[in-house]
Automatic annotation (TrEMBL):
Coiled coil (UniProt feature): none
Organism: Moritella yayanosii
Stored CDD domains: BtuF
UniProt domain Fe/B12 periplasmic-binding: residue ranges: 38-284
Top-level taxon of the source organism: Bacteria
N-terminal signal peptide: 1-26
Name of this protein: Vitamin B12-binding protein
PANTHER family according to UniProt: MOLYBDATE-BINDING PROTEIN MOLA (PTHR30535:SF34), VITAMIN B12-BINDING PROTEIN (PTHR30535)
Keywords: Signal
Pfam families, per database record: Peripla_BP_2 (PF01497)
InterPro entries: ABC_Transporter_SBP (IPR050902), ABC_transptr_periplasmic_BD (IPR002491), Vit_B12_bind_prot (IPR054828)
NCBIfam families associated with the record: TroA_like (NF038402)
Length: 291
């Protein structure tokens, strides 16, 4: 995974820590014959939510890294993680722009408003908020017949995961966000809820900085039972093999998860949670085997 890709992924979850609820900016529900038909999405997670709500075929422009579902990759790119292309968006003549309130520039959004383009703000929140946001999009876009069942299915899947892994062993976890400089996560609600669901205690949860840059010595002090990295690259975990005094290293409890699945505010987090909780069970088994 390139630095830029990882930066965008980290950028997404850093801002998520600021949100405590799933409320979204009020947007008057249009009459049926005027549901938005030409939609622009300004973040990867809003792109996924629009598809999940049943209106993916109305998207005419998306942000960089809008790579799921597959159809999103073919859409024109109108924004990056730092800025949006106002001219390109205007040329597409959208009747709705869905943006990420914590991530997209307020100045850019205000400029769109000045041109008379309707905008809708999405906030990232906790695990339960996914279903709520999909339903709200369904109402706004007139796709309730698709959005409501998708929301119900997500709620059921999340409830099933909570029941299935309710008795997972309690284990201390060090979560590696970035290898150099070494970075972890403290109290980001999106990730923290996933950790807790799987029985993990985040050893840096009480850090005053949401995403602290730390050193190996601090991890040595914490003595985590499990190390997990948000990466698709095994090489980013290689440095830990030197530190056999860490229980996670001694017992072979070093794992990785796909950040595009686990970090992004979308229904796919169900897959990420399943992977993380199975890691917890495997880690416990490794400890038993090595006793």
């Amino acid at each position: 995974m390139s630095f830029l890709t990882r930066f965008v992924t980290l950028f997404i979850i850093v801002f998520s820590v600021q949100v405590q609820s799933s409320s979204v900016q009020a947007f008057p529900l249009p009459v049926p014959e005027k549901y938005p038909q030409r939609i622009v999405s300004l973040s990867p997670h809003t792109t996924e939510l629009v598809f999940a709500a049943g209106a993916g075929d109305r998207l005419i422009g998306v942000s960089a890294y809008s790579d799921y579902p597959e159809e999103a990759k073919a859409l024109p790119i109108v924004a990056s993680s730092q800025q949006i292309n106002i001219e390109t968006i205007l040329a597409l003549e959208p009747d709705l722009v869905i943006y990420w309130q914590q991530g997209n520039s307020a100045a850019d959004i205000n400029q769109l408003k000045k041109f008379g383009i309707p905008v809708y703000a999405s906030k990232t929140g906790g695990l339960d908020d996914i279903a709520t946001q999909i339903q709200r999009l369904g109402k706004m876009l007139g796709t309730q017949s698709i959005a409501d069942p998708v929301s119900d299915k997500y709620r059921q899947a999340l409830a099933a995961l909570r029941a299935k892994y309710a008795h997972n062993p309690k284990q201390d976890l060090f979560y590696q966000v970035w290898p150099t400089p070494l970075m972890t996560v403290a109290n980001d609600p999106w990730l923290q809820e996933q950790f807790e669901l799987c029985g993990f205690n985040n050893v840096f949860h009480d850090s005053p900085v949401p995403y602290p840059v730390i050193n190996v010595e601090q991890v040595l002090v914490k003595q985590p039972a499990v190390i997990v990295a948000g990466t698709v690259n095994d090489a980013e975990l290689a440095q830990w093999q030197t530190w056999q005094s860490i229980p996670a290293v001694k017992n072979g409890n070093i794992f990785r998860i796909n950040p595009d699945v686990s970090h992004r505010f979308s229904p796919r987090v169900v897959q990420g949670i399943t992977t993380l909780c199975e890691i917890a069970l495997q880690a416990q088994q490794n400890v038993i085997t090595n006793q």
